[in-house]
Amino acid sequence: xxxxxxxxxxxxxxxxxxxxxxxxxxxxxxxxxxxxxxxxxxxxxxxxxxxxxxxxxxxxxxxxxxxxxxxxxxxxxxxxxxxxxxxxxxxxxxxxxxxxxxxxxxxxxxxxxxxxxxxxxxxxxxxxxxxxxxxxxxxxxxxxxxxxxxxxxxxxxxxxxxxxxxxxxxxxxxxxxxxxxxxxxxxxxxxxxxxxxxxxxxxxxxxxxxxxxxxxxxxxxxxxxxxxxxxxxxxxxxxxxxxxxxxxxxxxxxxxxxxxxxxxxxxxxxxxxxxxxxxxxxxxxxxxxxxxxxxxxx
Length: 298
Prior knowledge:
It is a single chain. This protein is an alpha+beta fold. The protein folds into two domains: 4-178, Formiminotransferase, N-terminal subdomain (Formiminotransferase-cyclodeaminase, Chain B, domain 1, 2-Layer Sandwich), CATH 3.30.990.10; 183-297, Alpha-Beta Plaits (2-Layer Sandwich). The chain has helices at residues 17-27, 55-72, 101-119, 138-142, 145-152, 194-204, 241-254, 270-281, 288-291; strands spanning 4-7, 10-11, 33-41, 46-53, 88-97, 123-127, 174-178, 183-189, 214-221, 226-233, 259-265. A hairpin with a 4-residue loop joins strand 3 and strand 4 (46-53). The mean pLDDT is 94.
């Protein structure tokens, strides 16, 4: 069976068409790697690419993308709603077929070392690749963002895993790590009050007492004039999308606010959507593998 990994690099650019097209061209340039999806958000000023294919080929493309991003993206001129610390902010590696998480950890370390050595960008390892428990959470690593990273890296507790203790002057710092499937899930609210979105984010995210498998921020979508609860669902089996969605609906009602819409950024495991459909349709004893037509052909 052919080995397949997924790679979902996030770039701190969601507005410049020429830069995004260059990244798309690079992502599509190597045999054995498929660019499954990419999306850009102007308010967040961020783009997310989803690659999959042969592990060695994916590693090659991931490095090439990081190199191009370091050339084209200048964080000293970057402004957006999404927290960021690097031109290539994060590069997660996800096992898909005939590849273990331990193999992805080894690949993440090799990629991180190459980025640090050749591009002079300091790199932190995170999630399953983390070298200490305090570095598993990307939000902890990113705290301080690009503007605060030079001072943060002076602290011995935050010495990067690879590279020096000085951020790249325009490309900042990058995080690389192995993890399981993650769903980028956002909920837009019928209000322009950022404080409401932030309060709801606090209610649902694990770090402030909400769902352990949910990371959430309240942000403002200036181009739409609406507040958003922006989330990463790190384990949809422990915390399904519908449970967080309904909690957001409940919390928003306290403020007299309704949900306008939700969105999935990038790709999403089909099971997560089927679980939500089953919940809202109140289907009893639904069997994903037996009752979903497409599954019977696998």
